[in-house]
Specification:
Layout lengths: L1 E2 L7 E6 L5 E7 L1 H12 L1 H4 L3 H8 L4 E9 L2 E8 L4 E4 L1 H10 L4 E3 L1 H7 L1 E2 L16 H13 L3 H15 L9
Parallel strand pairs: 4-7
Antiparallel strand pairs: 1-2, 2-3, 3-8, 4-5, 5-6
Length: 173
């Protein structure tokens, strides 16, 4: 997890496949980042916190699946053994995964399309444009213009335009 410089409280979580060869970047807000970091840094202390205590009382087994990307947000569903489901934000799914033994899966086609090769020694993390919300795209567009990075500005502008007409670009996986 890395905080984005100049990102207005934005952080990026890097999730890898089991072999640690491919990774996807997940954008999250400052509050989610703080909750995840607290649990990663102090797991013993967090075991007695209310969310963890409530998780321990749940009778069913659960799993989470990342199944798509819509309007810059990964689509995640939490499912119990009876097939009951609830939708989650991706950052909340990562938080739930850190708090419990609930596994997080991603559809193979989505992982293939969204992932990049994982490099443990990398000093930066790429954020795919299609995983940023519109306000962040607009902020990034203004920064690209200010930095005279017109190629990036063009890509950002095109993604913002695509978002204003989502039915033309939405596909079912």
């Amino acid at each position: 997890m890395q905080q984005v410089k100049g990102g207005d409280g934005m952080a990026v979580i890097l999730l890898t496949d089991m072999q640690r060869t491919r990774a996807i970047s997940v954008v999250c807000d400052e509050q989610a980042m703080q909750q995840i970091m607290m649990r990663l840094q102090n797991p013993e202390i967090c075991r007695t916190m209310l969310p963890e205590a409530l998780l321990g009382l749940l009778p069913s087994k659960y799993e989470m699946m990342v199944f798509g990307l819509y309007q810059g947000q990964y689509q995640v569903v939490l499912m119990d053994e009876k097939g009951e489901t609830a939708r989650l934000r991706m950052s909340d799914a990562v938080l739930l995964m850190t708090m419990s033994d609930i596994p997080l899966y991603i559809e193979e086609k989505l992982m293939s399309r969204q992932s990049t090769p994982y490099d443990e020694t990398a000093t930066g993390i790429a954020i795919p444009i299609n995983t940023m919300d519109v306000p962040r795209l607009k902020t990034a567009l203004q920064r690209a213009i200010d930095d005279e990075d017109y190629e990036l500005a063009s890509q950002l502008r095109d993604e913002i335009k695509r978002r204003s007409h989502p039915s033309a670009t939405t596909t079912t996986l």
